[in-house]
Specification:
MetI-like fold, Rossmann fold, 12% strand, alpha/beta, disordered C terminus, 6-stranded mixed sheet, 4-stranded antiparallel sheet, 3 domains
Length: 587
Amino acid sequence: MSAPAAEATAPRRSGTVRRFLTNPQAVLSCLVLLVIAGLVLFAPLVTQHDPNAAELSDAFGPPGGGHPLGFDSAGRDVWARLLYGGRNTLGGAALAVAVALVIGVPTGLAAGYHGGWFDSLASWWVNLVMALPAMVVLLASRAVLGSTVWVLMVVLGVLVAPSFFRLVRGTVAGMRGEPYVDAARVFGLRDSRIIARHVLVVVRAPIIIQVALVAGMAIGLQAGLEFLGIGSGSLPTWGAMLNEAFANIHREPLLMLWPGLALGVTSAALVLLASALRDVLEDRGTGPVTGRRARRAAADPPTTLEEAGERADLLSVRDLAVAYTLSDGTSTEVVHGVDLDVRRGEALGLVGQSGSGKTQTAFSVLGLLPEGGRVSRGSVLLDGTEVVGAAERTLRGLRGDTVAYVPQEPMSNLDPAFTVGDHLTEPLRSKLGLSRARARERALELLRQVEIPDPARVMASYPHQISGGMAQRVLIAGAISCDPDLLIADEPTTALDVTVQAEVLALLRGLQEERGMGVLLVTHNLGVVADLCDRVAVMREGRIVEVGATADLLTGPRDPYTRELLDAVLDDAPARAPWRPREVGTR
C-alpha cells in the first residue's frame, strides 16, 4: 500500500480503538468480562480440584488449604464448581445467542431489504414463534429431548431469534430506499455485498445491545431452570449452585453469595460493554487513469437519429412507457412513448420542468425504477443489451462499467457510516477485482482527477466532514471509477451554489471530452444545457416534444413549450458549438 493510502486508512482504525480505550465504561466492563472468561476457560489451570469430587467429612467446611471458598453441603470445592459451572452457564448462553443470531439476523436482513413473499412468510413464522410461551416450550423440550443444558439452549436460541429478526427487519425496511443504497446498486454491486457493506452497518449497534440483553436473559433463564431443578443435574452450573445453596440457606447462607455474585456481575458487565461499544461505533468524530477498454469509433450519423429511424450503438430508447400501480390496483402512466439516442462521445440534455418524467426515464435506463414502477412497453438498448425485462444479474453487469450515475443530492447519496475512501474503493474491488492496496491507489488518482486538493485527507473523511461541492466531486469520481461508456447525470448542480456549479460543469465537460463518454444530462436548467450538451431533448408531461442540436434549439425552437422554457432563462450566454463525431481512442 502506498504511503498516502496507508495514511488515509490509519485515522479511521486508530480513531475507533482510541475512543474505546478512552471510554472508562468500555474498558472496565471489558476487563471484567475478560477476567471472568479467562478464569472459566482456564479453570483446570486455576484449580486442581474436581468440581464433582465429594467428601462428606468436608461438608460446609471453611475456606483454607487450597479451597478459597470452602465446601458445599456435599463436601465439594465451591471455587472449582464456580469456575467449571461458569463454563456450562456462559457456554450455554453463548450457544443460545449464536443460534438466535444465525437465524434472526440473515432472515431479518433479507426480509427487510427484499420484502415480497419472503418477508410475508418470515413475518408469519416470527409471529407464530413469539406467540408460544417460552417456559412451556422449554419444559416440553426437556421432556422430549432430555435435560442436557446444550439442547435446551438451542431451543432457547430458536425462541429468541424473532427478537433479532424484528429489530433488523424494521431498521432495514426503513432505509432500503435511501439514496446511498440506490447509488451502490448503480455502481453494480451485488445485493449481498450491499447488505453486508451498507445495510448491516446500520443495524450493528442495535444488534450489539440485543446480544447483550439476550445473553443476560439466557444466563438468567438457564440459572432459573437449574435453580428449579429442571436442568441437567450432572453438570455444575451457577443455577445448580444456587439451588443447592438455597436448600441450605439457614445452615450456610454464604453459599448463596458466590453464584449470585457471578451471575450479577457477568450480566451487568455485558450490558455496560454493549452500551459502550454502541457509543464507540456510532461516534465518528469531526475531524493518469487509463480506460478499461477502447471505445469504438463513432460513425457519422444524422443529427437526429430518432427522426431517421436509426438506433445509436451506446443508448437507444424507443417507445418507452413507465407506469405505476396505485393503491386501488389500477395503473397510471407517467412516461409515454419516449424515443432517445445517445452516441459515444456525445452529451445529450434531457430538459423539462419538474414532474415531466425526466428522472423516470433515466431510472428506466438504469433498471432502477422505484417500488411500484415498471416499464409497461418499449425498448431500452444499452451498449447492445436490452434493459427492459433483463434479469438483475444482467443489469448489475451493466451498472458501473457500461453506465454510471451521478445524483442530484450528493450528501444523501453517501453512506454516513463510511469514509470517502470506502465509497470509492468498494466498486473498484467488486467490479474490477482490484486488490485493497491497488483500489486505494486508484481512488487517490480519481480524487486528483476531479481536482480535489489533499486527496489523502479526503479519503479518510466521512461525508459530514466535506462540503457539498466536494461531495459532488466524490460522486463523480465514483461514477467514472470503472470507466463507463455512458454517464447519466441527474441534476448534478442543483444543490450547489453558482460558483461551485460552474466548477462541476467544467469538470464534467473535461472528463467527457477526455474519456469520450456519452452523457445523458437530466436537468431543467437550459443554461447548463447550453454549457455542456451537444443535443437537447425537451420533455413535457412524460413526452418528448422536441429534439435538436443545442445551438439550433436554443436559437430557433419549434415547440411552444420550448419557447416558454427559453423565456424563463435570464442568462443570454452563447450556446456551446454543435457536436461533431470524433475518433475516440484508448486513454
